[in-house]
Write a structure and sequence with these properties.
This protein has 341 residues and is an alpha/beta fold. The chain has one domain: Rossmann fold (3-Layer(aba) Sandwich), CATH 3.40.50. Strands 1-2-4-3-5-6-7-8 form an eight-stranded mixed beta sheet, sandwiched between helices. A hairpin with a 2-residue loop joins β1 and β2. 51% of the residues are buried.
Length: 341
């Protein structure tokens, strides 16, 4: 990628299907107008902090309505990153569940330097009985790697520590992320045994291991991820705090593919065939490494789609369509996170 055509690893799945070409400029911040107000529900201790504005869908021009029977709990503090609190938004069934709920943690994208946890990507899962949490992590402008994965692991440990309080199943936790968030979800899955990535954000007595990974077009091997002509200022350069070629051990530590082992959880990987931001080869490399290690992995190639699964042209129709992909996500988590499944 060249500096004058710089493209960003934008895009939490909250932006899917709605970004314009201008939003794909490298370094563009994730944007979205305010959506319709959604009533917040009281949270168990620790108490949530209410946001001062209406929640955002992450989809320009689209107001969001929660599905019937789904409850939003805003800005629950789950740990500390550096010297500040870290927050998550929770979407869950409004009625108390009769059995502990499976959990899906969503990790937004934005080139590791932009994005928000105030998205509603998992609402359809909450409507199906899942306890879901969209989490915040420190951007690369605030702290370099491994701060981002440390914050994600802290969120998993927090949920396990509060399993009884929230009525969730601590043995069935999955992660789902897109773009930079897909990278972090994949790293949660493959680097469960790496103490260098745990951090000190809280709940050290709990495990950060997860039981399923849904990775949407996330970088898997930072050593082979295309760079621009200014490596220190590329998304991965800013993540690492240096040009990747200058920190090979950090590149290895930050690459999900470097940690693949036979005890990794199952993966569902989704990637647009015409993605020029995170090339599809990244997902193909990870999928192949998982299969060779004996790990269950499914790779869904989306035709006529670029980064964010956006259509490649005005008339293009991504295949499979988004509704079918969402169904695959639901079926994947049902298979691996529901004990009866």
């Amino acid at each position: 990628m060249h500096r004058d055509g710089r493209i960003c690893l934008v895009a939490g799945a909250a932006l899917l299907g709605a970004l314009t070409a201008s939003h794909l400029a490298l370094g563009a911040a994730q944007t979205a107008p305010a959506a319709a107000e959604v009533a917040a529900a009281p949270a168990p201790s620790p108490a949530p902090r209410r946001e001062p504005r209406a929640p955002r869908t992450g989809e320009p021009g689209v107001a969001f309505r929660l599905p019937p029977g789904v409850q939003l709990v805003r800005d629950v503090e789950f740990g500390t990153g550096g010297k500040r609190q870290l927050l998550m938004n929770i979407l869950k069934p409004a009625k108390p569940a009769k059995v502990p709920m499976p959990v899906v943690v969503f990790i937004h994208g934005g080139a590791w330097r932009a994005g928000t946890h105030r998205v509603f990507q998992t609402a359809f899962l909450a409507a199906r009985g899942y306890f879901t949490a969209s989490i915040e992590y420190r951007p690369s402008s605030e702290a370099p790697f491994p701060a981002q994965i440390e914050d994600c692991k802290c969120a998993i440990r927090f949920l396990r520590a509060h399993a009884e309080e929230y009525g969730i199943d601590p043995d069935h936790i999955g992660a789902w992320g897109s773009s930079a968030g897909g990278h972090l979800a994949a790293l949660l899955g493959t680097a469960a045994g790496e103490p260098k990535l745990e951090g000190t954000g809280g709940w050290p007595e709990q495990s950060s291991r997860i039981q399923a990974v849904c990775d949407w077009f996330g970088p898997a091997d930072l050593a082979t991820l295309p760079d621009d002509d200014d490596p220190p200022n590329s998304p991965q350069g800013q993540l690492l705090g240096n040009a990747p070629e200058n920190v090979p051990e950090l590149v290895r530590l930050a690459s999900p593919i470097s940690h693949v082992s036979p005890d990794d959880p199952p993966f569902l990987i989704v990637h647009g065939e015409n993605d020029f931001v995170v090339p599809m080869e990244q997902s193909e490399l990870l999928h192949r490494a998982l299969i060779e290690a004996g790990v269950e992995s499914t790779l869904v190639r989306v035709a006529n789609a670029g980064h964010g699964l956006n259509p490649t042209s005005r008339d293009a129709q991504p295949q499979p369509p988004r509704a079918e992909i969402d169904q695959k996500v639901l079926e994947f988590f049902d298979k691996h996170l529901r004990p009866e499944g």
